[in-house]
Write a structure and sequence with these properties.
single chain; mainly alpha; 3 helical TM bundles of succinate and fumarate reductases; 0% strand
Length: 125
């Protein structure tokens, strides 16, 4: 593959952006799981402290974070399936762009109803 005129191989196409988003969503999920294990383990140390932390989570900022978490899970899962198709299906590389757009459509179809319901609850508490 020849280098682009601007000195880089990347041109910002679907494959590159899905690669970047997959890595970012994976890191965010890892960080969430790490924090989740820590706050859940708090129940064994001090149930009262655990209850205080859970109460502190009941605010709109955390509600938006929860929506972001669900968005990361949905995107990461669907894009993971796209990666499997590209890697293991003989025609996968040929259709990687169409598969990317299928991920985007699937993401919107799955996330939009959740976001509407969840954010309605979060902002009407």
């Amino acid at each position: 593959m020849a280098q682009a005129a601007n000195g880089t191989l990347y041109r910002g196409r679907e494959g590159m952006w899905s690669w970047v988003a997959h890595r970012i969503s994976g890191v965010l999920l890892f960080l969430f799981l790490f924090a989740h294990v820590l706050d859940t383990a708090l129940v064994r140390v001090s149930p009262d402290a655990y209850n205080e932390v859970m109460e502190a989570y009941k605010n709109p900022i955390v509600g938006l974070g929860e929506a972001g978490l669900v968005a990361a899970v949905i995107f990461h899962a669907l894009n993971g399936l796209r990666i499997i198709a590209v890697d293991f299906w003989a025609k996968g590389p040929k259709y990687q762009r169409q598969l990317f757009w299928a991920v985007v459509i699937g993401f919107v179809v799955l996330f939009a109803p959740f976001a509407i319901r969840h954010l309605t609850i979060v902002f009407t508490r």
